[in-house]
Amino acid sequence: MYQPTLESIKQHPLPAWYDDAKFGIFVHWTISSVPAYAPTGLGDINSIFARESEAYGYTCQPYAEWYQNSLRITGSPVDVYHRQTYGPDYPYENFAAAFNEQSRQWQPEAWANLFSEAGARYVVLVTKHHDGFLLWDSHTPNPFRPNYRTTRDVTGELARSVTAKGLKMGLYYSSALDWTFSPEPILGFADLLSTGPTSPEYLRYAETHWRELIDRYHPDILWSDIAYPPFGDLPALFAYFYNRNPEGVVNDRWFQLPRRYLEPGGKVLLQQEAKKLMHDGGTALPPVPHCDFRTTEYSNLETRAPFKWESVRGIGNSFTYNQAEQPADYLTAPELIRMLVDVVSKNGNLLLNVGPRPDGSIPEPQVEALRGIGRWLAVNGEAIYGARPWTRAGDKTEDGLQVAYTAKDDALYITLLHPPAGALTLPDLPARADSALTVLGSDEPLAWQRRGNALHISLPLALNWDSIPVLRLAMD
Q1: What is the largest distance, in Å, between two alpha-carbon atoms of the chain?
Q2: What strands lie across the sheet with 221-225, from one edge to the other?
């Protein structure tokens, strides 16, 4: 039994299933799916903040799930769109009725089938995003908006469908932000941390929801976002979760704002700290005392990490469905496969998001991408599932093209992220004279020879480069 102390929960080991899984599906589906709008053509969130000011980044936010915050910023693209489409006096919460009406058509089994076909091993559902709308019938309803929830038990229906396919189920909950509790718009990183509700009433609300989700739906992952209300007893919450599911995992977005920032003058101090952090080149929150894995958003690590991490992103530049996104805004299956391999080679998992329409249908470019990943994994999953990072994440060939390495048991896997010109020459690979080298999906051995410390590999002319081939090198 885990005790409600930091010392006790820090003894929780990373479960093998999570380290083995490598690929999960995130689902953002809330009432922002009804207006389904954010400006496009600006790139992803990180490229915007790299080029522009904080205020610009939040005003022209590419995340459609931030529609309500963008609507609070006078003159923002969302504000202009909303006034033209719905009128100046149409409140955001009115989208709940349309969402509940259209979501009657949703078929959770179809989602579970697609996610399984894609080769995902776990699913994480957003049960409450920053807008405060609940995707389950909580015993602790919103105190400001009666019946501000789905009429279907979306969380329960999807959990049953996903686990029936043998996938693990995780639950996301926006712990730090709830815009039904706080009316101030977020215009910068300091606002992100300081405008969230910090009252004892909200802390009880969030903590009660987390425990209710644990008890009712038995999740395998607790996925908090942004941070957690100040003064909340996180060791007690984590012990509560681990004692009910010792194989469960928690992410790293549980930062709690220190007391000094909540006192008079604290926001000015926080803004100063935020400016320094932005100047240093990042918006990541400080490390938390305990987590099972760390997260990045729309970015990957540069090198192999000594810790377990998860790369999180949408197939497009928004998590929730954005009707303004065109096919060119979505990454293709080959691009996502290369990303998956890169992440796994650096000790990470890829949590790839889908953003359904209000009726539950998933846009075709997203479906095509998922099915393409699934077809590739059906042939090459041996190099992904259960694999571990090798001594180095990858190499460049003599042609300057990138390959990625993963390892498992007695094999080294070499994923050819880009087609070399003819033969392939790689440095310092542990091949013996009798080592077998094959392409996954074929038993035909490849010819290779030593050239100093390098391995020179002859590649078959018929190799399908569109398929992103993987070589298997037998090792001791």
Answers
A1: 76
A2: 249-250, 221-225, 168-174, 122-128, 23-27, 348-354, 309-314, 294-297
